[in-house]
Every structure is written in structure tokens, then in C-alpha cells.
Amino acid sequence: MAVTVRDVAKAAGVSPSTVSRVFTAPEQVQTSTRDKVIEVASRLGYRPDPTARSLRSGRTESLGLVIPDIANPFFPPIVKAMQTRARTHGHTLLVADCDEREADELETIEAIVKKVDGLVLWASTLSDGRLRELAEEIPLVLVNRHVPGIPELHVSLAPGVTQAAEHLRALGHTSCVFVNCSRPEHLRGKAIRETFDAQGLGLVELGPYDPRFETGLHAATLAIANGATAILAHNDLVAVGVLHGLTAAGVDVPGEVSVIGIDDTLLAGLSIPALTTIRISPQAVATHATDLIVETITGSATAQHLVEVGSRLIPRASTGPAPHRA
Amino acid sequence: MAVTVRDVAKAAGVSPSTVSRVFTAPEQVQTSTRDKVIEVASRLGYRPDPTARSLRSGRTESLGLVIPDIANPFFPPIVKAMQTRARTHGHTLLVADCDEREADELETIEAIVKKVDGLVLWASTLSDGRLRELAEEIPLVLVNRHVPGIPELHVSLAPGVTQAAEHLRALGHTSCVFVNCSRPEHLRGKAIRETFDAQGLGLVELGPYDPRFETGLHAATLAIANGATAILAHNDLVAVGVLHGLTAAGVDVPGEVSVIGIDDTLLAGLSIPALTTIRISPQAVATHATDLIVETITGSATAQHLVEVGSRLIPRASTGPAPHRA
DNA sequence: ATGAAAGCGCTAACAC
DNA sequence: GTGTTAGCGCTTTCAT
Predict the structure, then answer these.
(1) Which Pfam families match (chains A, B) (predicted)?
(2) What is the DSSP annotation of B196-241?
(3) Which of A156, A273, B52, B230 is most buried (CB neighbours < 10 A)?
(4) Element spanning A143, H or E
């Protein structure tokens, strides 16, 4: 098969351990020896075998990321940035999509848990108990899920929602609707209502629905009937649905109704009118999630237990002054 | 650490090899023995260690997929479908994004080549020579890249483009433009022009440009100046750019100009008007690519060397009858 | 700073 | 059908 440490050792006139050290702890090897080994290794085309290395060392140099749906345009930029970040730590990123189905999540995790040094679980649907068991088996980071004792990255919509409320209030809106597509237990609706309340803005919550385009279509009708002048949608996809629904009903955006999305996916910049939305930085999420799982693996002393990533409003063309009352 | 074959063997009163066989070749083990081993294994919580298994067997049970850009909405559905398909073969899919940068591709491949049993390279930018070298080292499947001797999946736009040409001809169009964003050596423009020629339709090629939204904006202006009544764009993103460009110029779609995209990404169904586009089935691509690499790995006799996946036109609202000549 | 020896957990020959 | 033996390629004590 391939070239091994022994081949290199023999050809360089040193022991296998020295060759190994050259690749794992070069500072422990005398410069002259090191140079020779490196020269011979590259001449022979030696590449360390990660499998053998893992078996011996117990480390895989891989990180696992489990997400609900890679086809949701919110995730690809995060995956991309995490892959880059993982590589700066010398790790490979293993992405697993559990397809939004809870039953699949455990199976999906099972399929990669033995192949990675740590796991990042995005909005896991597993029970607290299962997660605690898992955390005992392998370093774990939870994103948007809280289980006491397990390191957590919290992606907070609060700053963006506050800015959205300020934005709408400044534009004179008073009657707002939130199209909710989260699980009720997430209390997203409650949190958002409270933020709007704090700005002196009323907010009617619709849903929960599924986070689909058609949901937006439907919600637009309801919102109109409700007399709302501003609509905050669960995400950009739903917001685009709202945009379509309003347009179909002959309602002008932003002349009569303003619309705000969440996530700032590529959809937001491409809709007509371009969508005002709440942006979550994929780089920030990726960097923090990656660093947190690496610190958890190494047991680094500087490891925070809870890291927060914020959000902010990206004003575009779908929001404008509230119409004068009839 | 964890439970090993030996622990199970001891507890079940059999040898380690028997335990191993229960998990790799159960039919070679007597039913009664097998049941007992399974019972003991599950009681002890035994999970085979894939690392050790790989080291010994030489197989990783993983497949690698290298793509140019996971943030391009064309890829996520394919990644998702390939992951599912790989799992039915008992494999894990390892996705690597090389970020469209040629220099990174080799590095990206390097990072995973030793961790997988086979590699699927999407539109590789590597030289023929490098690819041949790589194919010597590991089973390889090329998508949309031809190197004699290396198994290949060809995603053919021809059927969809033919249907597009028929569609436009039936609608009375005679003056068409293709916004090209492929590398010149791909000859995509030439192939498409020939297809349109065969339908008796002229086609002016613009570009090559970068496949960006702004390209569409720009191309719209050029196409109008050109007197074109139909525009075929490199992909949906560019087509949406064209849509915006035309709208901004006060040109009605499809009243004055018809627009066709390529890929049928989620953008196509969400634009206004909804985009007529050429669809490439992610499932078909994923299934064939996965099966082809698996057959290449196993050296299966039924292995085809060249597999084709077609495409078809999805008519939506962005195409209509050509306007009457002024 | 370097080498010798042991063994990570598993599977594959080979024996019986 | 099952056990014995050996060793995949590497890292890591421990010794020198």
C-alpha cells in the first residue's frame, strides 16, 4: 500500500518514533534530523494515515455539525464558514443533515458520533435526558437549545427585533403582526411581543405554522383582515410569501403595509421590493460555535459556558412610513 | 474507555472474532450464538469503533464530495440527497467546499482523501494529469468534467435547452440572447447556440461574465439594446438579475421580453414573475453520482463508465408570446 | 534528543 | 462454526 513511518524511518536512518515526532512535535527533534526526515518523507510521498493516528491517539481531528436542513438557505453560509474555521484549528468538519425529522436525529448523530471529537447540535429536538447522556459520551455544544451543564451558543434575535420595533415605531406603525413558525415551547412569539411592547407597539401573533412560502401567502390575507400595517415574518422565505400575498391582493409594499423578514438569506436581497430583514452573521455564528466546541474538547480554561451571538436590522425597501388612517 | 469486542467476547463466553463476525458477517455465525452475542453487546452498550475497523479493513465507509460552493443554492439539495443515498449504501458522506478557488481545491481534496473510500469531484479545476494521478490513488468520479479513463457523470442541459428553444419558437421569438458565465473552454455557449440553431433560432452570446446577480442586471441592458425578445441566463440567480434589470428599465416580462433561467433553485419559484427555468433533478444527480462512486470502489462489473443525467424545461410565468414587431 | 517496545480495537488468515 | 494468531500504521511511555 502506501508509504509508512517505517519506510521513512528506514530511508532516513532514524527510528519510527522520530519520524512520528517530526510530524506531531517537531520542536522535540533536532533541526538537522528533522530536515532530513522531512526531505526523505516528501521524496517518498509520505502522508500520515489519519485512521491509524486516530486509533492510537484517540483523536479524530474532526468536528461534527448536525443541522435540521441544509436546503434552508440560512445554513449553507454557516456550514461554509465553519468548515473554514475548523480548518484553522486543524480539524475537518463533518456535516450531517437530519432532515427536520426528530426520529432521524438520533440516527444521524449515531452515524457520526464515533468519527468526531466533538459535536455541535443545532436546535436539537432530543430530550434533555438524551442530550445529557450524549454529553457524557462526547464533547457537545448546543446551538439555540438550553440544557443546564452543556455548553451553549445562543443566537439572539433580540437586538434585531428591538431595532425592527424602533424602526417601525419611527415610521409611525402601530398595528403589527408576527407570523410565527416556531414550536410553541420556544416562546419566540412571547419574546418578540415583549420587545415590541417595550417600544410601545402592539403585536398580534399568528400561527404557529410551518415555515413555508405558502404560510406567508396565507398570513398576508389574515394580516390585511386584521388591519395590520406591518408584518414581521418567521424568516425570509415566509416574508417573501407575505410579499407575494400582499401583491396578489393589490396591497402596496411598503406604501400600505411594511414587511420584515428574518435571517438575511439570499432571498432578501432579491425580492421586489428588497426585503428589510434581521441579519444573523454566519461568520460570527460559525466562529463562535467552532471555537466553543474546540475549547470544550480541549477542556480549555478560557472556555465560556454560554456564548451569545447577536443580530441586527438590515433596512431595505420593504418597509416605509405607515399609511394615514382612513 | 469504551466497550470493546474483547469485553463482549468475555461476557458472552465466545472469542473476539465471533463477536466481530456477528457485526460484519452475521450469516457465518450460528443463530443461537449470534443472538447471545447481540444480547450481551446491547446490554454492555457495545458500538464498533469505526476507526479501528478502518485501520484493519482498509475501508472507511465514507464517501467524499467536493463542490465549488455550498452557498450556491443549486448544491444543497444535491448534498442532501447524496447524504441520504450514501447512507443506504452504509456510507457516510463527507462534504468539502473548495470555495471556487482552484488553489484551494487540491488542499481541500488533500484534507479528506485519506478519510474516504472514494471521491466525487464536481466540475474539478484540476489538470487532467493531476486527476489521473489522483484516480490512481483513490476511486474517483468526475461530474461535468471529462478525463479519458475516469468514471464520469455528465449532467446534460441539452434536453432542457432543446425544450427551451422549442418553447420560445412556439411563442414566436426569433431574437434570443444567452448570458454566459461559464469558462470559455466549457463550450457551453457553443453547445447552446447549436441547439437553438437546430430549432431555426438565432442566439447571441454575451459574456463570459461572473455568475452574479449584477451580471443579470447588466446583461438586461445589453439585451434590450440588442433588440432581443428572449433571454436565457446562465443560472437562476443571473436570470433574477435580468428580471430586475428589465423591470428597472420599464420593460415588461413576459410582455416584451421573456426570461429563462437554469437550475430550478428555490429562487425560480419565488421571483416575480415566477421564472421559467431548466430543471436538473437533484435526486437523479445524487443517486447516479453516489451509485457510480460506490460501483467504482467495489469494482462492480455492472459499472458504467459514463452516466448521463438530463434536464427539462419548467415553464412558469416569465415566458410568453413574442411582442409584435414595431 | 532519540530508540525500543507496546498496543489502540478491530478483522482476516488460518487452523481446528 | 468458532478460536487462535497476527498485525493494520501510528503514537507514546520508558529508557538511554
Answers:
(1) LacI, Peripla_BP_3
(2) HHHTT-EEEEE----SSHHHHHHHHHHHHHTT-SEEEESSHHHHHH
(3) B230
(4) strand A140-143
Contacts of A99 in chain B (CB under 8 A): 80, 84
Q: Do residues B270 and A240 lie in contact, with contact meaning Cβ atoms separated by under 8 Å?
A: yes
**C-alpha cell, B248:** 428597472
> What are the tens digits of pLDDT across the range A249-294?
999 999 999 999 999 999 999 999 999 999 999 999 999 999 999 9
Report residue A251 as a C-alpha cell: 396591497
Any chain A CB within 8 A of the CB of B247?
A: yes
Residue A18 contacts residue A29 (beta carbons within 8 Å)? yes
Mean pLDDT over A110-121 rounds to 97
Three cell numbers, residue B280: 436538473
Which 91-120 residues of chain B touch chain A by CB within 8 A? Answer: 92, 94-97, 99, 111-112, 114-115
Strand runs labelled E in chain B: 62-67, 92-97, 118-122, 140-143, 152-155, 175-179, 202-206, 230-233, 258-263, 276-279, 306-309, 312-314
- Give the three cell numbers for residue B75: 448544491
Q: What is the pLDDT of residues B93-129, one digit of tens each?
A: 999 999 877 778 999 999 999 999 999 999 999 999 9
Q: Distances in Å between the alpha carbon of B246 and those of A193, A269, B78, B255, B263?
A: 40, 17, 31, 11, 21
The confidence score (pLDDT) of residue A221 equals 96
A86-114 in b/e form (b: 16+ CB < 10 A) is bbebebbbbbbbbbbeeebbbebbebbbb
Domain locations along chain B = 5-56, 158-280+313-325
Sort strands B258-263 and B230-233 into parallel, antiparallel or unpaired. parallel
CATH of domain B5-56: 1.10.260.40
- The cell numbers describing A167, all together, are 424602526
Q: What is the pLDDT of residues B64-96, one digit of tens each?
A: 999 999 999 999 999 999 999 999 999 999 999
Which helix (H) or strand (E) segment holds residue A176: the answer is: strand A175-179
Select from B116, B115, B96, B93 the least CA-distant residue to B106.
Answer: B96
pTM score: 0.95
What gap in Å lies between CA B212 and CA B199, rounded to an integer?
29
Question: How many angstroms separate the CA atoms of A168 and A173, rounded?
Answer: 5
Q: Is B76 on the interface with A (CB under 8 A)?
A: yes
Superfamily holding B158-280+313-325: Response regulator (3.40.50.2300)
**Relative orientation angle of helices B5-12 and B16-24, to the nearest 10 degrees:** 110
Domains A5-56 and A158-280+313-325 share a fold: no
Burial of A149 per CB tally in 10 Å (0-12, 13-18, 19+) = exposed
Cβ neighbours of residue B86 closer than 8 Å, sequence gap 6 or more: B63, B92, B93, B290
